[in-house]
Design a protein that fits this description.
InterPro entries: CoaB-like_sf, CoaBC, DNA/pantothenate-metab_flavo_C, Flavin_trans-like, Flavoprotein. Pathway: Cofactor biosynthesis; coenzyme A biosynthesis; CoA from (R)-pantothenate: step 2/5; Cofactor biosynthesis; coenzyme A biosynthesis; CoA from (R)-pantothenate: step 3/5. It holds the Pfam family DFP. It is a single chain. The protein is α/β, with parallel strands linked by helices. The chain contains 13 helices and 19 strands. It has two domains: about 170 residues, Rossmann fold (3-Layer(aba) Sandwich); about 200 residues, Rossmann fold (3-Layer(aba) Sandwich), CATH 3.40.50.10300. It is about 35% helix and about 25% strand. Helix 1 packs across helix 8 and helix 8 crosses helix 9. It starts with 7 loop residues before the first strand and ends in an 11-residue tail after the last helix. The model has no long low-confidence stretch (mean pLDDT about 90).
């Protein structure tokens, strides 16, 4: 049997200070068996030199179409690639790519590529938010490119804000997921999706809370797979100790009331909302001002009040009829029966039913489920990595969204 060919990746490097972080991405790609050709811009070499890229990739490095002309690199690299991944994608590089410029080897490669193309932008916040940059991003997304949302954090100098290149490990995860989909279309391109993840906490006093055992892993897997399928992703995250998925906008919350506010605001222009978070049904009616202490007498009585039903409210007050709403049901017994009842009561389109317990679902790297839809269908998803379940859920969401063309999402 012939050996399987190593996936071919063209790693485009833009001229930004974040180029140094791409060395780690390159190392992860090569050490996991990928054949990587680094194609930097001229300015990228001001930050990281050609010898570094050549040594880490084990391949020649070129910036101009005039090098190794007999191999026609400006055509061959794009034709032969399984993935073109550009990081950091500067404002200038995004503009040149959006307008079809071909003034160096990287922009020529982008024009000849017929494989998935991912841009990981990095720049100052003002540059990212400028209408010209946003229009260029919308243009690239409309053509099927995956343009990640930048991370929020420390930028060059003392500045902090949105525009930071995501961490190399998270970028590698995006590359891995996109390559796993092969030539499948980025079928969520131009779509805005909202995902909730984690478990809410309801304060009893300044140091104690009522909570649950959700780790947020399934919600984060849903966010990461949606990014790899081209979506703009808003992730509402409740008390999760996981690295933020590259390319997703993360909104941290604590309680069910905070989650409701964040989800409803984000859902206003969303094509789909997936409520994977474990939201507390009840909260204490009051929060003690100080730590509740033992007194030697009877324990204190805690009165609970009902939290808002976010899933039912979303289903009831959709901004448009074609918005897809997905719920989750974590059950310890009679899971499918309880799931059907919840689907009917909440009014959502799909519900993902999990059997939970010790060593099952919560906090584990794998999961299994039955997805019920309002038309009566039941889809069984066998036990496997949580990203597999996430991809199957998005398959079902895409079916419901249909093939109607979508105006590019500018993220504004």
């Amino acid at each position: 049997m012939a050996a399987q060919r190593a996936p071919r990746v063209v790693l485009g490097v833009g001229g930004g200070i974040a180029a140094y972080k791409v060395c780690e991405l390159l190392r992860r790609l090569t050490e996991s068996g990928h054949h990587v050709r680094v194609v930097p811009t001229r300015d990228a070499l001001r930050f990281v030199g050609e010898p570094t890229w050549a040594a880490l990739s084990g391949q020649p490095v070129a910036t101009e179409v005039w090098q190794d002309v007999h191999e026609v690199p400006h055509v061959r690299l794009g034709q032969q690639a399984d993935l073109v991944f550009v990081a950091p994608a500067t404002a200038d590089l995004l503009a040149r790519a959006a307008h079809g410029m071909a003034d160096d080897l990287l922009t020529n490669t982008l024009l000849t590529a017929r494989c998935p193309v991912v841009f990981a932008p990095a720049m100052h916040t003002e540059m990212w938010e400028h209408p010209a940059t946003q229009q260029n991003v919308a243009t690239l997304r409309a053509r099927g490119a995956i343009v990640l949302e930048p991370a929020t954090g420390r930028l060059t100098g003392a500045d902090t804000g949105k525009g930071r290149l995501p961490e190399p490990a998270e970028l590698f995860d995006v590359a891995r997921r996109v390559l796993a989909r092969g030539t499948l279309a980025a079928d969520l391109t131009g779509r805005h999706v909202v995902v909730s993840a984690g478990g809410t906490r309801e304060a009893l006093d300044p140091v104690r809370f009522l909570g649950n055992r959700s780790s947020g892993r399934q919600g984060y897997a849903l966010a990461a797979t949606a990014v790899a399928r081209g979506a703009r992703v808003t992730l509402v995250s409740a008390n999760v100790a996981l690295p933020a998925p590259a390319g997703a906008d993360v909104i941290p919350v604590t309680s069910a009331v905070e989650m409701r506010e964040a989800v409803l605001a984000a859902a206003a222009d969303a094509d789909a909302v997936v409520m994977a978070a474990a939201v507390a049904d009840f909260r204490p009616d009051t929060k003690a001002a100080g730590k509740i202490k033992k007194t030697g007498g009877p324990p204190p009585t805690i009165t609970l009040v009902e939290n808002p039903d976010i899933l039912a409210e979303l289903s009831r007050n959709r901004p448009r009829k074609d918005q897809v709403i997905v719920g989750f049901a974590a059950e310890t017994e009679n899971a499918v029966a309880y799931g059907r009842d919840k689907l009917q009561r909440k009014g959502c389109d799909l519900i993902v039913v999990n059997q939970v317990g010790e060593g099952i679902a919560f906090g584990t790297p794998d999961n299994e489920a039955v997805v019920l839809d309002r038309d009566g269908r039941a889809v069984e998803i066998p036990r496997g990595p949580k990203e597999n379940l996430a991809d199957r859920v998005w398959d079902l969401v895409v079916e419901r969204l249909g093939s109607v063309s979508k105006t590019p999402d500018t993220g504004r």
